[in-house]
């Protein structure tokens, strides 16, 4: 908890130091253009974020398709990357780009008749053996 608090206190200073080093390396004008570009990019990403992506994921689950963890968390990652692009600084831009990388996660199987823990190719069910021969003279009255 103290580490998180320390990071939150140092984060603005790290962002300012990163911007100063970037301005020293490439100049003040290009750094200002970079900040404007990433701000507009973040704003565009947030404006294009709709609930439709979440509804699409829900439809995929209802149809029983296999969904990767990456596609499940993509709307959240996209939204967070847009917010990070809005924050002026080099560190937030790097984190936003890392969130947008197409890393595929493990496949998730929606719960169904086999259940989430059933191995591939196994169908769970109940059965009874009917090998016993019944007496033909026995009747139900």
Summarize the structure.
Helix 2 crosses helix 4 and helix 4 runs antiparallel to helix 5.
Describe this structure as you would to a colleague.
The protein has a two-stranded antiparallel sheet with strand order 1-2. It has one domain (9-108). The chain has 141 residues and is mainly α. The radius of gyration is 28 Å and the shape is elongated. It is built from five helices and two strands.
Q: What letter string, H or E per element, gives the SSE order?
A: HHHEHHE
| Number of domain units | 1
The total count of helices amounts to: 5
Rg over CA atoms: 28 Å
The portion of residues assigned to helices is 55-70%
Shape: elongated
Beta-strand residue percentage: under 5%
How many DSSP-defined strands?
A: 2
- Unreliable stretches (pLDDT < 50, length at least 5) are none
Taking all residues together, what is the mean pLDDT? 79
The biggest sheet amounts to:
2 strands, antiparallel
Q: Separation of termini? A: 77 Å
Structural class: mainly alpha
